[in-house]
Amino acid sequence: MRTENQGRGSPVSPDQELVLSSLELDQLAAVRKQPIPRRRLRGFEKVLLWSLRIYVLFMITVVIYQVLAGAR
Amino acid sequence: MERSGQEAPVSADPATKLTTDVVITHEDIDRAHDRERVFAARARHGIFSRLRLLWLLVGPGILVMLGENDGPSMLSYAATGSRFGIGFFIPFVVLTFFMALVVQEMTVRLGSATHRGHAELIFDRFGPFWGWFSMIDLGVGNFLTLITEFIAIRAGLGFFGVPPWAAILGALAVLYLALVTHRYWTWERITLAAAVFNLVFVPVALLAQPNWGSVGHAITTWMPLPGGLTKDTLLILLADIGATVTPWMLFFQQSATVDKGLTRGDVRFGRIDTALGAALAATAAVATILATAPLFAHHMTAENFQAAEFAQALQPLIGRFGASLFALGIVEAGMVACITISTSSAYAFGEVAHKPHSLNLPLKEGKPFYFVLFLCAVAAGAIVLIPGLPLVYVVLVVNVIAVLAMPPALVFLFMLANDREIMGDLVSPAWINVLAASVVIFLTLAGILFGISVVAPNAFAFITGK
């Protein structure tokens, strides 16, 4: 583990020790950059997400209607 | 490596497991300092150490709840009090905060278990379509809401004769001051100090000398509801729901929980933090209803009142001091929401665009994060200064977007909180699922009803028969 200004093989600094002892691995900014794997959806969940897509269309229609009605 | 809780089961790419190549950043070091203080407090025993631990761990929950008591929300509660007086809406508003608590508790567990923001989790677990949809939805909703916060700040300070440009510049200066140290901890404490000022509505309510017998009767019987269930009553009901549970809250609290560095061992305190926030916010909301209830008793029409108009209308009833407190309360509500909402947009942008996103980032490392944060605030503030802007119309569109955007956000929240792969043992237990599912269904129906009320306003009159 290195700090940003430290080359490979450098001795462990107090900051590194602090981070090592205080944070969980998954809390490190560098680790958090890695994406979490995609979820495998079951049948019901697929139906739910398609229902959401339809709802989003409804929602966009309502918002556009509201904006146009307000503009008039 | 960890001193509290178990290792999260989040399965990031195994190749990134701790190796000599993992770089620690300034953000990590700042967060580690914050965690050190938590460990030190946890190692001690006694009531004062417990209180210190609570002091160190509270923040996101109180901020999100008091942040949602924003300018438009307080005006919505004020309108409720002035139109319906002391009655049904007092217990109803408390119920909405209970619903908010149920929903927000899930974000505490998600943030503590995964150390990822809400936008990031949706993007990773459900794919780019829903990731970008959530981001754009949040971004547009937040931006329009920010405009309404600046409207509230402008109107509240207008009561004291402050010109609009000075009000907006002052608000931006406060936002800058909260961020200037580039430390999450400092930002959180400054914003908390400002947020607690939301309770200024309590002395205003006391000045209004409410009939406590009527308050007790309202809480125990949920009555009276003047005029019965009409189309207007339904709209006020939906507006009060929209004033308590909105999408930005989910994104903000989860991101803030991550930025604060809470872990699995801190979930209990995260829950206390959220419950404390809900209690404080409900107190301020009920106080606002009580403060404006005299307008109902005096049959004063306050349907379309803005901040300064409410304060002016209350002045003969509660005096200049009380009216000034009311106006200051509206300013504070707008200011705190301005800080939390612009931060929520910046967090979500960073999470979805894979840019560094933390209030611990030095300016050099966090340019995109701070740029988005300030851009949102400055643009919203500038729009409010445009002469002749239909501000009431903007507020209406904000409400429509906020309420309609809730169902997708809630569905993803519910699915994520039940996702054992990322939550491990913090997955929602059955009793929370029953509670959460009820709230999600209720809020989703409320969103759909609100949508129908916009497209077909007469449908409500048909349903209620009035």
In short:
Chain A has 72 residues and is mostly helical. Helices cover 58% and strands 3% of the residues of chain A. Strand 1 of chain A pairs parallel with strand 1 (23-24) of chain B.
Walk me through the structure.
The relative contact order of chain A is 0.06. With 72 residues, chain A is an all-alpha fold. Chain A has three helices and one strand; from the N terminus they run βααα. Chain A is elongated. In chain A, 58% of the residues lie in helices and 3% in strands. Chain B has one domain (59-464): Amino acid/polyamine transporter I. In chain B, 75% of the residues lie in helices and 0% in strands. Chain B has 20 helices and one strand. The N and C termini of chain B lie far apart (64 Å). In chain B, 56% of the residues are buried. Mean pLDDT of chain B is 87; it is low at 4-19. The chains are: A mainly alpha (72), B mainly alpha (466). Chains A and B meet through β1, α1, α2 and α3 of A and β1, α1, α6, α17 and α19 of B. β1 (2-3) of chain A pairs parallel with β1 of chain B, so a sheet runs across the interface.
CATH topological fold name of chain B: Amino acid/polyamine transporter I
- Our count of domains of chain A comes out at 2
* Secondary-structure element string of chain B: EHHHHHHHHHHHHHHHHHHHH
Helix and strand succession of chain A?
A: EHHH
Q: Looking at this structure, what is the CATH superfamily of chain B?
A: Amino acid/polyamine transporter I
Strand content of chain B: under 5%
Q: Which assembly state applies to the chains in this document? A: heterodimer
Gross morphology of chain A is: elongated
* Termini separation of chain A: 61 Å
Derived from helix and strand composition plus strand pairing, the structural class of chain B reads: mainly alpha
Shape by Cα distribution of chain B = globular
CATH class of chain B: Mainly Alpha
